[in-house]
Structures are given as structure tokens and as C-alpha cells.
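Late entry, evening session. Most of the bench is empty. Finally got around to the prediction I had been postponing all week. Sequence below, unchanged from the version circulated by S.P.
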Amino acid sequence: MGLTASSTGRYSDDGDLIIERRENDSVIALAGNPNVGKSTVFNFLTGMNQHTGNWTGKTVQNAQGRFERDGKDYILVDIPGTYSILAHSAEEEAARDFICFGGADGAVVVCDATCLERNLNLVIQIIEITPHVIVCVNLLDEARKKRISVDTARLSELLGVPVFGVTARTGEGIDEMTAALGSIGEKKREDVIKCPYPDEIEAAVSRLSAVLSDKLKGAADERFAALRLLDGDNKLIEGISKASGTDIAADEAVQTLLEEEKKNLAERGFDETRVKDEIINAVVRCAERTAAECVSFEKPDYYERDRKIDRILTHRFWGVPIMAAMLALVFWITVTGANYPSALLSRLFGALGEKLHGGLAALNAPSWLDSMLVDGIYRVLSWVTAVMLPPMAIFFPLFTLMEDLGYLPRVAFNLDRYFKKAGVCGKQSLTMAMGFGCNAAGITGCRIIDSPRERLIAILTNNFVPCNGRFPSLIAIITIFFAGSGSGSSVIAVLILTAVIIFGVMLTLGVSKLLSKTVLKGIPSSFTLELPPYRRPQIGQILVRSVFDRTIFVLGRAVSVAAPAGLFIWLLANIKVGDGSVLSVCSGFLDPFASVFGLDGTILLAFILGFPANEIVIPIMLMTYMAQGSLVEYESLESLKDILVSNGWTAMTAVCTLIFILCHFPCSTSMLTIKKETGSLKWTALAFVLPTVTGLALCFIAASGFRLAEFLGA
């Protein structure tokens, strides 16, 4: 079909992705609601020839790729999924600003054929910005299964823009859609749909448009700008002013007329709030009327199957237990599935380490250099990779699978009322769930929360759920001290682990409520939660998204901080002070303080030195207990238990260590992410102090309980 893809994009010094636009390139914005298959369309057109980066001045990612059709070159920019261009979140603002002022030659708006009415709200809003629009009605295969018919010809007639039905996962209809891109800029304003507003608003818009026409100089649609003046969208007005070179908010003629129109509207019962509501409602009504003429249902209750499933999965009583059971199942698959590849990677890295020793010996390298490079830096890197990679490679695809099936929004629905009671946004349940894979990813995910206050609370509390880096330590301690070694030990370990996770969720809610009542007071915001239809998962897309977007990204960050950490730990273990190393001296210094909390100095030191990567906490403990000069790998859980018990570990030590694994300062990767997301040293410091103080307080309570029980028993 004459469609080929190639890479594009380069990074600025600040890490922002810059569009490398050649003279004859056309830039196309790819827009759409979340969960409409927009990424599938993007991937089909650009293949793997994509680049991602942040929008300039924002922490919101974009993706772009280049493709060629019929001799013409196109740059496709995948903007964040949004329900509206009347922005409330950073993602919506980035999407809207790129369409309005990003230099795009047109927009392809992707819709879901199974729920077209809701998607048309965004389509109509974008057409109000620019007439250069193509509508891509995706998921036709899903619509056919549900006996839904979409008359794309009639829809095109009503909207006044080209409309194409596609199934992006198979490529059906993509050829016809891309063929129309060559004429995307030919539509004029008078050719496309004009959303009818109440007569009073239409009159005001008409008069304002006449004045704005000369001021905007084609930089923005005057009707769109007039509507934004009336509904008081100051951010958009600033953007329009910047794009046109005329500060319309300060222009005397514009402002005089605007005040007159607002006064006239108020006299007719249209105060500022009603004007905003009428503008929104007019778009909704227009979308409803348009969809009613173009969509037919052979089976009106096509969604009854989804409703039946939702009656169980979102049941007020059964929803949460089912969610906990699914969480336990995911953990069981992750734990049992990661054991063999982790052991295999450890053996492979061990063999490679021996080769490195041999190579350095052949080069006559000094023994201290050989030990520093291999026993220090290399062993930490290999340990982090062997411990992190297998569980992430299992957990992230499972997490993405639940997302693709449509279950994660049901999780948010089940937990929404609990987060509301804590005074925060229900979206925090999704960012919290992302933290199970990696807290840094969960912190980045907090961008989906509109309210800055609630976003900050979500960032500060994300560390209360354990990431993949903490799972190995949790599992090891639970197994050797509480689960036993019988045939059902793995099941018992997973059940205890699930209970620990649920405790972490409860802590998240409790601390969130504390913050919302003290330093971050406010009223919890409401949000529209879409429950998308259940869909057959796209295994290929799941693997690509989970492995490349999540697993490799997180592993890369961890490895980048593990190398210098390995060098630092090796130095502490090999620099002698008297009869011991700096490591043992530091451990002894911390011992009196740590014992108050049911720990010992070695445990506390291991957490401090494990700041770059949580995976190395237990190996540092073993290295200190055994006075070794490099990280120690335990041969089995039984051998690990023998080492710990011989160094004074009891049930109290195990419980307090479990608590502190769950509640302690974030790792270095998470801290860097918090600093980047908040832009504040103050909130970054609080993110460090909050879980640490909480963990120490809980450890003190647990240790006091054990000591009291021991005293009473004596």
C-alpha cells in the first residue's frame, strides 16, 4: 500500500523530544480517549521506529514516529489519551496545546466503535479547533461481535470530515485512512460540523469572533477563541495570545466587548458557571444526536455480559476479596515462576565472573583492582539483574494483561470509596498498583491525577506498597521463618505475602488520610471512571509494552545506580579500621539504636547501603555477618536461615525486618523520580522521612509487644 516507516526525533539538552521536520514533512497529531486502541494505530503505522520524550516544560511523555505514504512523509505524534481538550490534568493540557499550537498539520482522532457516542465529544471539540481532522473508528471487530453497526459514510456527512472504520490490530481499513492523509489540510471551517450553542451564547460568540478575526491572524480559530474567552479558560487564552502574538486578554477592544457580552449574558440568566455548563452540555448533546444517526444496535443489551461480570467483580462485598485473590495469584505466579530463571542467571553471571577474574589475572592486574571490579562493581550489577529481571519480566506482563483485559479500572472502582474516605482521589489506587512493579513507575503514573494536592499525596505514599526489588527479601524471610519447608510452603508464603501487601495498602490509606487532614488539607476531587468493555488481550502488544516500556526501563535505572553502589560497598568492606572493616565498625555503631526497634546494626546498615537498589539488602547483611569483602550469595534458604539465626535473629527480628522492608525510605531511583515529579527538595525530603518514621514506629511497637510477651511468659 506504499506505507513505510523510519525513525525520527532527537533530544534536546533537557531531554525533550524535538520534531525534526523537513520542508515537505506533514505533522499529524494522533488523538483519542484512553483505551480506544490509539497506541495500536500508532504502532501499526510507525512500527518500532519510534522515540519517546517529554513535552517541553512538562513531565508528560509523548511518542512520535515517521512513516511514508504515496511518496509523502508524515511525522505521527501520539498525544496523551484524553476525554476532553478542556484540560484539567497535565496530560490533557499537553494534548490540547499540541493540537492548538504545536504546529500539527492535522489530527487523526481514534474512536472506539463500541462506544462511539462518548468518543464523539472529543472529536467535536477538536473539529472546533481545526477542520483538518480524520476520524478513525477503531475496534470494528469488537463492534461486530457485539452486533453494533457504524455508518461511517453518514458519520462523515454529519461531521464534515473523512471517517474510516478500521481494526488496527489486523490493519483492516488502515490503507484507506492513510490514503486520505494527503488531503487532510483541504477542509475549510464552513465545511465541518458546527456545534450549536444556546442562541444567547451564539450571539456573543458571533460578535467576539468578528473582533478576534483580525487579532488572531490565523493562529487560532476565532470561534474557538471566543468560546474560551466566555468560559474563562485562562491557560488557553494565554496560549492563543502567544501563538498569535497578540495578548487578547489585555487587548482593550476585545476586553471591552467581552465585558459587555458577559453582562448581557448575565442579564439573561447566563452567569459564568452556566455558560461553562452550557458549552459542555452542547457538545454532549451534539455527540448524542450524531451517534444516534450513525450507530445501530442489533442487540440493544449487547453489554449485558460485561454487566454480569461486573456485578461480581465490582460487588460491594465480593469485589475486594476477589481482587485480593487475584493479587495473590499474580504473586504466586511471579514468585514460583521467577525462582528458576533467577537461579539460572545467578549461575551464568557467576561463571562470567570467573572468566573476568581469569581475564584480569592474564593482564597481571593487581589483586585489589581485580576484587574491586569483579567482586565489587560486577557482582552488585549481576545480583541486581538476576534478582530484578525475572520477577519484573513476569509481573509486568501480568499487570499489563489485567490492564488489557479491562480489569484494572474495576480495581480502581472497588478501591475508590476507600480512597475517598481517606480524602484523596480514587485514581491513586491505579498508581498504587503500578508501584507493585516499581515505585518509580508508580510515582510517574501519578501524573494521571488532576489535583496537585492529591497527586502529591499519591507520590508521598506510593512507597508503602513493595516493589519488585523488595519482594525477594520479603519472600525469603517469610519462607524461612513463617512458611516452613513442607509441600504447601509456597502457598503459605504467598498468603502471608498477600497479607503483608494488604497491610501496606491499609498504611497507604491511613497515611494519605493523615496528610489530607494536616499538611495537605483539601476536599477529595471527583473523577469520571471509565469501565471499558472486557476485551481479548493482545499478547504481542502486552509483551512489547511490558518488556520495553516497563521492565527494561526500570532495570536500566536500577543498574545505573547499582554500579557506583557496588564500588562504595566494596570500599567499606575492604578498608580496615583496627581489627575490622569500616562496614563492621559502622554496624557496631548503629547496633544500640537499631536494637530499640527490634533490629540490629547490620540490618539497619544494610538498608542504608541498599539505598541505590533494594535487591542488595540481604546480601549486604550476609557480607557483614560473615566478614566477607564482597557480596555473598546464599546457597539455599536453609543456609540463609542458619546464618541469620547464628547471628541472633529471632521471630521478633524477622517481623521487625519485614515491617522495615515494607516501610522505609524509597530507593535512589524513586527519590530521583520524586524530585523530578515534584520539583521540590522539601517534598522529596518528606517522601524520605515519612515511610522511614512510620516504619521505625511500627517496628518499635512490634518489638515492644514481643518483649512484653516474653516478660509475661517469664
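Two things to note before I forget:
The chain is about 60% helix and 10% strand.
The mean pLDDT is 82.
Will write this up properly tomorrow.
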